């Protein structure tokens, strides 16, 4: 199981990102459709955002969820070759119809994480492996 960030680390990064965007807790809360007290609890470490809230936060604050969670970039890149091999294996096992679905899923995940700005493999029609 991966190491989860300390609540205080997440709280600090969240507050720093919000403040750097010139937003108050109340303004961020309004955009998330939640009470300002929720934002306060996140920023003081008394609570942590749910995954769906983390995705929305990353969109609103224009940062990746990895950045908010404090995942070191070197860890992400270190694990990339293993992840690519696993995706290739899944793609081969799925066949052409499943490959299109897998690419669509990966595109959606990239978009949600703030990392998807260009199509994978030149788009879904690039045919072949993921």
Individual helix count:
6
The CATH topology of the largest domain corresponds to 434 Repressor (Amino-terminal Domain)
Q: Please indicate the percent range of residues in DSSP E strands (runs of 2 or more).
A: under 5%
The low-confidence runs, each spanning 5 or more residues with pLDDT under 50, are 116-130
What keywords describe this structure?
single chain, 130 residues, mainly alpha, 434 Repressor (Amino-terminal Domain), 2 domains, 6 helices, 0% strand
Give the gist of this structure:
The protein has 130 residues and is mostly helical. It folds into two domains: 63 residues, 434 Repressor (Amino-terminal Domain) (Orthogonal Bundle), CATH 1.10.260; 54 residues, no CATH class.
